[in-house]
Amino acid sequence: MMHQLEHYFTHIDPVFAAFIATTFTWLVTAAGAALVFFFKSMHRGVLDGMLGFTGGVMVAASFWSLLMPSIELSERLYPSAPWMPAAIGFLVGALFLFFLDKKMPHLHLNFNENEKEGIKTQLHKTTLLVLAITLHNIPEGLAVGVLFGAAANGMEGATIAGAIALAIGIGIQNFPEGFAVAMPLRRAGASRIKSFMYGQLSAIVEPIAGVIGAVAVIYMEPILPFALSFAAGAMIFVVVEEVIPETQRDKYTDVAVLGFIGGFLVMMVLDVALG
Question: For residues 239 and 237, what is the distance between their CA atoms, to the nearest angstrom?
């Protein structure tokens, strides 16, 4: 199955490949959101464990799928300072998400409405929750697109199999994200359809970011190591600023930590085994 997928993605346009892969991650989010048709609530410990799992996947993907290939390529393109592209890209990616975090109105999962962040707004809590998860998904889509573009350029350390593994890992951790957005809306009295629509809407940005990332690196090869580490920096910022605090609001912090370890392990195995 994996060989068939790799063969298929190798023989199609890399931008289209990135679009397909990120559409898959979006659809997995929609599948998670669809759970509201069957459940109205979720045990808080399960939710914190799922969010921890999400953080673990993102941290592992940041290193194995993004930073390590960035450093390997930098050793060839910038032999006098191979650390520079990874360091600069990582910093700029984190600062980019820092800027979005400050400017985009949003509300973290499990936070009270008076703790919303970004510019002051009268947007409804529902919209703020969706915007918060959208912030999570921008670097995820970007990472998948950049890796497909890098593999298409024959970049050392980047392979189609690795890009597929990253898309699978991101997809797995998107499943609980979809439910994590939809479930509070359903519990607050929103209809099942409305809760589902808002839940899946949070990931619609992933195909857009994926295509942008693929196009950028395919046509501008010198920026490849910067683009890979940019996506890594953005993902690490999201984990530290958004995901981890969301898991530390109740008595299930140990469950979240175990979820994080599990997510890290799953993504590491996926990348090493398939990439």
Answer: 5
Q: How many angstroms separate the CA atoms of 42 and 36, rounded?
A: 10
What pLDDT score does 119 carry?
72
Q: Cα–Cα distance between 15 and 212 in angstroms, integer? A: 9
Cβ proximity of 207 and 171 under 8 Å:
no
Hey, is 41 helix, strand or coil?
coil
Provide the CB-side half-sphere exposure for 172 (13 A, CA): 21
> For residue 124, how many other CB atoms are within 10 A of its CB?
11
Residue spans of the domains in the chain: they are: 19-274
Distance (Å, rounded) from C-alpha 105 to C-alpha 64? 32
The answer to whether the beta carbons of residues 230 and 90 sit under 8 Å apart is yes
DSSP state of 35: G
Closest by CA position to 133, among listed 185, 190, 168, 64: 185
Q: Where are the alpha helices (DSSP H) in 153-223?
A: 160-187, 192-201, 205-219
pTM: 0.82
Give the burial string for 20-48 (b: 16+ CB within 10 Å, else e). bbbbbbbbbbbbbbbbbeeeeebeebebb
Average confidence (pLDDT) per 10 residues, the chain, 275 residues: 80 91 94 87 80 90 88 85 91 91 71 66 68 80 89 77 89 84 77 88 90 86 85 90 80 88 92 74
- Rounded Cα–Cα distance for residues 22 and 148 (Å): 11
> Tokens in use for 143?
């990472």
Give the span between the Cα atoms of 71 and 73, in whole angstroms: 5
Residues in the chain: 275
